[in-house]
Every structure is written in structure tokens, then in C-alpha cells.
């Protein structure tokens, strides 16, 4: 198994990319802490993993609160003895709309969830990784950071920050043998799909978005999960600072 004996946290692990990453990691031998605000769904995901014979637990977490992130990391280390992989997957967006229609409160929330969470994860994970002399951050960015769509300006900006922060983390933390990589998914069939579309999930709306993807389909959460396994795999020990598009060719 590629991730045998690895211990991972997956934020936003109760649905979408995070749920698929949690399943992919445990299938490869990792123990996973599912972190999410949605306690009911998070408990269900963790229970489903345990029912399959995997090691998993749920920890209710608001990734914008330092106390929550501290408790998340502490719980993980207490339960499993170490932490190898931090997947910063939790993210939100405003609906596709003109940039000036987005409220200040909504703007603030987007940057708290999508960007501040990376700061807080570093504050609480880096000391653990430094003690171990190893660790891996996997940050979920977006093709919005590379080839932005109109109507998503502030979300695009938050994901641009994720990409640059990932590269900077990789350079600064390399002497401690800590890696940082990012995954940039294309629009995918996840709970945020209609938010990105700015309208109903209809065949017509899907066609507008798939037309911009050379491989001719929307992304799947499993596409992102497979990329996350690659970055978490100890065999990728020389890979850091990479921001990989998982996008069916959209950014070409």
C-alpha cells in the first residue's frame, strides 16, 4: 500500500473532494482524521471508513479558528502518535456573479476559509513536522488561480493566494524536510458545482463548462483524490512546490 502507516488530516473531509481523498488515503493504508464543520456528515464518513476496516475518526473543525485547528492537530497526534500529511481542502466560493455584487462579509469569509486556514494549519502543523523531521502539506487550489473564469473574481483571488503560498511554503520549509504541493482542479461534480455555474445544474449549463475542457467532461472528486495520493506517497519525497492542474486540459 502506498500510504501504509501514514497519518493524515483532511479538512472539508465530509463531502466532495475531501470525502474522496479520505477514502483514497485509507484504501492505500493511511489513517485519516476527517475534519469538517458538518458533524453529522463527518461522522458518517468516518464511520463508513471504520466499517471497511480502516482507521479513521471525525473531528469537528472550523478551519478559520486557531483553537479548532490546534485541537484538530492535538487530537490527531494523541490518537495516532504522529502526523504525516495535512490536506487543506476546506473551501468555499461566492456564486458566479459580477465582482461588485459580492458583499464585504462574503469576501471576508472566502479569504478566511480559503487562505487563513493555510496560515492556521502551518502554525499548528509545522512544529509537529519539525519535531519529526518530515511532513507534507497538500493544498487544494483551483484552475481559477491559473485561468480564471469571469464572475468568480474574489474566489479566483483566494485560490491565487493558495498557489503562491504553497510555493513559498515549499521553499521555506524544505530545510526541515517538509514538503508542500497543491492541486488545481477544474470545475467538478461536487456540492459547489451550482455555485461556480451561477445557476441550476442543467445539461445546457454543463455543456457551457465542458466545452472549455479538452477531455470533454467535468472533473470528478476521484481525479483529485488520486492526485492527492501521489503527493502524499513517500515515493514523492523529491516533489515539492508543485501546483498540479487536474483539469482535463483546461489550462493548456
CATH class: Alpha Beta
Q: Tally the helices: what do you get? A: 8
Q: Based on the structure given, which CATH architecture is correct?
A: 3-Layer(aba) Sandwich
**Total strand segments:** 7
Q: What would you give as the CATH superfamily?
A: NAD(P)-binding Rossmann-like Domain
The largest sheet, given as strand count, sense and whether it forms a barrel, is: 7 strands, parallel
Structural class: alpha/beta
Tertiary shape: globular
Q: pLDDT under 50 segments (min length 5)?
A: none
Order of helices and strands: EHEHEHEHEHEHHHE
Strand order within the widest beta sheet: 3-2-1-4-5-6-7
End-to-end Cα distance: 33 Å
Q: Roughly what fraction of the amino acids lie in strands?
A: 15-25%
The tally of domains stands at 1
Characterization of the model:
By secondary structure, the protein is an alpha/beta fold. It has one domain (7-246): NAD(P)-binding Rossmann-like Domain (Rossmann fold, 3-Layer(aba) Sandwich), CATH 3.40.50.720. It has 8 helices and 7 strands, in the order βαβαβαβαβαβαααβ. The protein has helices at 16-27, 39-51, 66-80, 104-132, 153-173, 193-197, 203-210, 221-232, and strands spanning 7-11, 31-36, 56-60, 85-88, 135-140, 178-185, 243-246. It has a 7-stranded parallel β-sheet, with helices on both faces. Strand 5 (135-140), helix 5 and strand 6 form a beta-alpha-beta unit. The model has no long low-confidence stretch (mean pLDDT 96).
Task: Quickly describe the structure.
This protein is of the alpha/beta class. Helices cover 46% and strands 15% of the residues. The protein has one domain: Rossmann fold, CATH 3.40.50.720.
Amino acid at each position: 500500500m502506498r500510504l501504509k502507516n501514514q497519518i493524515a488530516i483532511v479538512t472539508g473531509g465530509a463531502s466532495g473532494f475531501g470525502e474522496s481523498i479520505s477514502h483514497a488515503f485509507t484504501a492505500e493504508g493511511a489513517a485519516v482524521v476527517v475534519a469538517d464543520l458538518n458533524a453529522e456528515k463527518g461522522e458518517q464518513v468516518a464511520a463508513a471508513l471504520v466499517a471497511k476496516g480502516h482507521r479513521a475518526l471525525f473531528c469537528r473543525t472550523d478551519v478559520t479558528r486557531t483553537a479548532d485547528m490546534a485541537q484538530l492537530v492535538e487530537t490527531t497526534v494523541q490518537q495516532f502518535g504522529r502526523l504525516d500529511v495535512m490536506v487543506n481542502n476546506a473551501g468555499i466560493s461566492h456564486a458566479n456573479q459580477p465582482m461588485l455584487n459580492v458583499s464585504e462579509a462574503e469576501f471576508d469569509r472566502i479569504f478566511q476559509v480559503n487562505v487563513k486556514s493555510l496560515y492556521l494549519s502551518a502554525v499548528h502543523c509545522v512544529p509537529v513536522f519539525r519535531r519529526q523531521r518530515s511532513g507534507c502539506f497538500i493544498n487544494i487550489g483551483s484552475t481559477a488561480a491559473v485561468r480564471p473564469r469571469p464572475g468568480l473574481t474574489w474566489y479566483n483571488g483566494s485560490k491565487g493566494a493558495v498557489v503562491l503560498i504553497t510555493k513559498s511554503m515549499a521553499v521555506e520549509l524544505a530545510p526541515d524536510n517538509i514538503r508542500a504541493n497543491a492541486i488545481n482542479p477544474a470545475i467538478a461534480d461536487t456540492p459547489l458545482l451550482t455555485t461556480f455555474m451561477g445557476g441550476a445544474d442543467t445539461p445546457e449549463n454543463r455543456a457551457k463548462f465542458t466545452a472549455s475542457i479538452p477531455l470533454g467532461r467535468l472533473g470528478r472528486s476521484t481525479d483529485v483524490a488520486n492526485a492527492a495520493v501521489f503527493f502524499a506517497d513517500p515515493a514523492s519525497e523529491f516533489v515539492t512546490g508543485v501546483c498540479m492542474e487536474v483539469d482535463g486540459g483546461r489550462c493548456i
